[in-house]
């Protein structure tokens, strides 16, 4: 089976202000199509781990594998290519450009990758908005839509380059129950219908309970 995401004995230390062993022997896998949540108290190392998994942080010990490829030790230009092609990101704050339209915001990561021409990218972006049920918002400015709609646009944007995995850092942290449920259902459909894997850091027990698996962390370790 494809090694979609796997960590082998990942350890990380912060060296300042004092030496701090923040991640300890992190070993886990995410299978294709799996929807996994990561939970743990504030400060246990979730964001630090996500930063490594997203290939942004290269200062760690151990191995990270993505899509059958050893990521650890790759050059930074190769890492940004892998990141743009294979990973979609959804954060607590949507980071949309307020003066751009919804459609332009969704198109941006594909324009950066420059693998397709503009009409094709626009077609893909409208398709992603359709999947999320918000194609009617395409020509609106991002500053003019609601918080729940903004998060759906952010998800559409995360899908534009057809990633294998979506990584989320508190993607429902800013949403009310109604909108959190919409986001959960979208993630569930992406996993079930499109075989996309999802790895989501959350403090929301109700959200996590509905995912396929919960990885619980404590003091930099994964609990069995
Ligand atoms: N750059 C840094 N230098 C030193 N220590 C750091 C640094 N970044 C984070 N830490 C410490 O590492 C620990 C883990 O932080 P991290 O942000 O990964 O926790 P978290 O589980 O994501 O917390 P939260 O749920 O509050 O976001 C914390 O004790 C934090 O203070």
UniProtKB/TrEMBL annotation:
Database matches in PROSITE patterns: ABC_TRANSPORTER_1 (PS00211), ABC_TRANSPORTER_2 (PS50893)
Record-stated family: Belongs to the ABC transporter superfamily. Macrolide exporter (TC 3.A.1.122) family.
Upper lineage: Bacteria, Pseudomonadati, Bacteroidota, Flavobacteriia, Flavobacteriales
One GO cellular component term: plasma membrane
Pfam families to which the protein is assigned, alphabetical: ABC_tran
The organism of origin for this protein: Christiangramia aestuarii
CDD domains reported for this sequence: ABC_MJ0796_LolCDE_FtsE
Keyword Iron applies: no
Keywords: ATP-binding, Nucleotide-binding, Transport
Name the UniProt record assigns to this protein: ABC transporter ATP-binding protein
Domain ABC transporter, chain residue ranges per copy: 5-223
GO molecular function, one term: ATP hydrolysis activity
Keyword Ribonucleoprotein: no
